[in-house]
Specification:
Length: about 475
């Protein structure tokens, strides 16, 4: 085992030991002011972090020559194998390129393997492109999808598909990837399951929409059963005519309960002869009108102690993050440029730009990752102390320096609360990286001050 691999394995093990008696301490930081500056930090340690107790380490470093394995780069979203006998052992990420792929890092051996890649680059008819999402399913498989779909009136694309890897822990030669065609074609990014196993997804474009798939067999043990039949809906706030509206919402069906397009919905057939529902074109029609958001991207679901759930949606173009109370179907503006920067006491303004990814740590804290170039790219911690879906303030938690890059795929390890993973995507050097951020200073639950703080937080939450 190489020295850096051994160091990473030891660091991960130490974090796991600390976490066994503790909550995360990622929330203990000093909000930063100002940009880090492009190229001011080494690419091997690319983040300015908001606490001296945070550390960063390389887990995966791309070889642009792809000497030992296929790796087209543009590392994007993360997930672990979150269930099963070896839960938490493998970290998955995807390649958001014209020849997409999936890689798997064994956190026990620190070896990274490309488990599947597109047989050909775009525009070949057997190509797969722009994998963005990474989501572990409740039944123990892996979902990803293509962030690529045609606009209305253009030639029908072969992309915009959602895929399930049905055996993600298998040897690469045995990996099986399946197009789940019951899900309408859109430009996919975030995917999320709620506690009822409804699947949420978005169409990533200006004027894009938010969707929900409700399986007829929501407690299925396989993807074949889960995706065999189900109904897709689009979110409509009010009458659907006001862009980025907030307030009371409804879910408008675009298919029947079996997944068949309702009369009037748009179906298309691509060059491979595959017929699908055009999720983008359909929801522009008056009968299926959905509320438009400008570039909805990543989504996450937060579960409160009482079981109530909020869906968070980052929308990039107009610098907003929305929350959706899934019990009440109520949409609120969670963070915008009017939100207070806790470091200055003033509205955050244009320091907060192009929110792209959202992530939630083990304490339910929300983080927002910008789609900005290295030097001005920030990750923000959002303070929502009463859990009402509207943040009182935000604070800079991390800033990326790498020239030409953006941070993507922030993911907090559910088994090691003091570990997070984030990718450094498309740097000018072409050396993408997976960085592990960790903290050795957990908030111990038997600390009296923390107990008092927890009690106060519970009192403030009340019966949300």
């Amino acid at each position: 085992m190489k020295l850096k691999t051994l160091a990473a394995a030891v660091a991960l093990a130490a974090a796991a030991m600390a976490a066994s008696a503790a909550d995360t301490s990622f929330q203990n930081f000093t909000p930063m002011i100002g940009d880090v500056g492009a190229g001011t930090l080494p690419e091997a340690a690319p983040f300015r972090l908001s606490s001296p107790n945070f550390s960063q380490m390389n887990l995966v470093v791309r070889d642009p020559a792809q000497t030992s394995r296929f790796d087209s780069g543009n590392y994007d979203m993360h997930t672990l194998n979150e269930t099963g006998a070896e839960a938490g052992r493998y970290l998955f990420t995807v390649y958001e390129t014209g020849q997409a792929g999936i890689q798997r890092t064994d956190l026990r051996t620190m070896l990274t393997t490309t488990i599947w890649s597109s047989p050909a680059p775009a525009p070949a008819l057997n190509s797969y492109v722009a994998f963005d999402a990474s989501r572990w399913t409740p039944w123990g498989t892996f979902l990803t999808a293509e962030e690529s779909w045609n606009d209305v009136g253009q030639a029908v694309s072969i992309y915009g598909r959602l895929f399930e890897v049905t055996n993600p822990l298998a040897a690469p030669a045995d990996i099986k990837i399946v197009h789940r065609n019951i899900i309408p074609r859109v430009s996919h990014e975030g995917l999320a399951f709620d506690s009822k196993r409804n699947l949420y997804f978005i169409d990533e474009r200006n004027g894009g929409n938010i969707y929900k798939y409700v399986s007829r067999n929501r407690w299925a043990k396989t993807g074949d059963d889960y995706f065999a039949a189900g109904q897709t809906f689009v979110l409509r706030v009010g009458d659907g005519t006001v862009k980025e509206a907030t307030g009371a919402a409804t879910w408008v069906p675009i298919t029947d309960a079996n997944g068949v397009a309702l009369p009037g919905a748009v179906t298309v057939t691509d060059a491979n002869g595959v017929s699908s529902i055009d999720g983008r074109a359909t929801v522009n029609l008056p009968a299926f009108l959905g509320t438009d958001y400008d570039r909805p991207e990543d989504i996450e679901i937060k579960t409160l102690k009482n079981g109530k759930q909020f869906l968070y949606v980052a929308t990039t173009t107009n610098h907003k993050v929305f929350s959706i109370d899934l019990d009440r179907d109520m949409v609120k503006l969670f963070v915008s440029r009017d939100t207070i920067d806790i470091a200055t006491g003033l509205p955050v303004g244009n320091a907060f730009s192009n929110p792209d990814n959202v992530a939630i740590d083990s304490n339910g804290n929300m983080y927002i990752v910008e789609d900005q170039p290295g030097g001005v790219q920030d990750t923000w911690f959002a303070f929502d102390r009463n859990n009402d879906g509207v943040a009182e303030s935000v604070g800079r938690w991390a800033s990326l320096s790498t020239v030409g890059a953006e941070a993507t795929g922030l993911y907090f390890d559910p088994f090691r609360p003091n570990v997070a993973y984030v990718n450094v995507q498309h740097p000018s050097s072409r050396v993408d990286r997976t960085i592990m951020i960790s903290t050795p200073c957990p908030c111990f639950k038997n600390d009296k001050d923390d107990e008092r703080r927890d009690d106060k937080d519970d009192d403030r939450r009340g019966h949300d």
